[in-house]
Task: structure prediction
Amino acid sequence: MKKKLSRQGFNCVTPKLKPIDARYGIEDQAVKLRDKINIELGETSKFILIGFSMGGIICRYYLQELGGINRVEKFISISTPHHGTYTAYFYPGIGTKQLRPKSQLLENLKKKERSFNNIRMYSFRTPFDLMIIPSKSSEWEIAENRKYFSPIHSLMLFNPKLIGNIQSILKEK
Result:
């Protein structure tokens, strides 16, 4: 996705947050995300934020708890477990536990959703997702929801229709 968007002239920053399993929690990853954004884009520039899977929840925490909402024009989440996922019971890390349905972190983010009044939000999912169970957990009531047919979770990032849709969103004023 980054290659295709970059070829279209979009400046894409893709921070690599470690550890990738968020074993120290979503909050830890969100702070790292904020710091990388500030290094790459400066501390005041506006941008569009895209988060995939757990990264979508990390982005939400950054937006809602760390002030990112003041800088982001649009937020696109792809295969993000907004309502949790039952697969989060299979891994013991803190961040994964926070992705369980009705976790304290997800409940706190839900309570503060009203802060999203001024940005456009999109949530994209595939009904075939075996990481986000149920896949409808990626539907987000306050976002524009769209469904794409990708055979598995990670292939959403390579779905040509989804990428085309994101290109259109990025071009919109």
User: Anything to note?
Assistant: The mean pLDDT is 95. Residues 26-41 form the longest helix (16 residues). Residues 23 and 92 are 8 Å apart (CA to CA). The chain is about 35% helix and 15% strand.
